Amino acid sequence: MARTVLLPRPAALPVRSLPPEAFPSSDGIPMESRTVANAAQLLRHVLIHAGLRPDLDVGFNQFLYYDPTNQHRHKGPDFWAAVGVPPRHREHWETWTEGKAPDVVVEMVSPTSRQRDQDTKLYDYAALGVVEYYWFDPQDNTWAGYRLQGSRYVDIPLEADGSRWCETLHLKLVLWDGVYDGHRRRWLRWAYPDGTLLLTTEEQREVEAQHAAEQAARVEQADRRAAAQTQRAEEEARRAAAQTQRADEEARRAAVQTQRAEEEARRAAEVARLAEDAGRRASRAEAQAAEEARLRQEAEARVARLREKLQAMGIEVPE
User: Which range of residues forms the domain containing residue 157?
Assistant: First the structure.
């Protein structure tokens, strides 16, 4: 829903300005509740810690002066952000010194400020040229956002994830359930375009501690894996040494068996040689016996013929 806001005519340049001490930083009255103060401080805290850009400055609970001749003409935004300005210590914001009003303002709604925050200030901040205006009610967690288009504020619609896009800072505003400054509740927070929250200093330390713990766990796990691998390598080396020892023993046994086989082969060869020699001797003995038998037969035959001749001659020959 668009709200048309008529901008006032530019005032004529003042004849003279009031001295700086005439413009206090605030009225000295603390913010209405600790919750309201924390909600504004959280928005400022994460932007400062993130260090998004060198020309961004943020503040909270400071007076915004827009008339150098009248210190009573001011607003007191709970949170403001400005781009294109050098970040420095500012007691308050002066539009004539900075050349403009802050670009983004967020008001934290309280029971006493609800009407002003949700209605009247839309006209006031539009008249000052505040580009984007948001209000957040910590009591019921309702909130709204508006972007200045020409002379009117236009509602900034909710995204599908429930966020609103802050075009000035190129960030999202989201509702987040969690703990800040020891208080658990729903807070309005800045987030990157992908939805990742801008972290507080404490959250950053926790994330870094978690990352360090995870890294230590990874290192420990790697050490355990390395130790296990070393143990397995040692076991494999022992098994390899045992296998080598067994192979050496088998080689020695094989060598012994080979030696025995060679000795048995030599003995078998010797036995074969002896058997061959014995065979040859036996053959010679058989041949000699045959020769002797032949000679005997021949002798006996001659004797028989001779006896026959002698008997034929009438000579008796004894047997």
Answer: 3-198
